[in-house]
């Protein structure tokens, strides 16, 4: 009951893909690389997930209900680190199957704890903002990083698990040296929509984009790769533990809203209700973009 996507087949070759489908190299039992729970490739649909570094590739397995078969780009350092971790723990070299226990589902800038529904938290819990990997800055002498805040945002009567992304400085297109911030226009080029009212959730999920979760932790925001499969658009420095409320909301809808604002729009709000107010102000000013992203993993 193994599933091998066309992207995975293109990476591993037809012969290896056919051998997997015939059961030659597929494990009978495995630990799902997404939820880490046991799986049985003979009794339940199973996805092949290929982690690809600069020089190394590792094939892992997952419940098809958790994540589809796909290619996930990870750093070579992370991939080799997973191999070393397995070797030290077991005293032997890691196999593709055993690597699923040590390898995060995707490379990983960091996330922040979720806010309460619509920012109306029972107490003054402060949402936290992270500092992900450097992004392309508008000026060659600057580096901007993407800060990500997790929160539950109320759209109508529904609370959506949400991510608010805000760079620390202007983000320009490749070759732009003017200092002009093009962050929102870059995202609208990818189908993100400007938000006029935060109470209205985006209508359709963005094809090819997803929010990657594994074992209840946030790992990355994935975008379509130019070479096929998925690549990390944003990745956490270390897998981030979200709250139960955020995880339940994400799992209930199997979707996450990603909001994006230019640098200096929202900042570090001390309370969740203030974060919602900042989103409303950004929408009223026409500087809030959003998209509905499918949830990958659990």
UniProtKB/TrEMBL annotation:
Location of the region described as Disordered in the Swiss-Prot/TrEMBL record = 87-136
Residue ranges, compositional bias (Polar residues): 87-98
- Provide ranges: composition bias, Pro residues: 106-116
Q: What is this protein called?
A: Uncharacterized protein
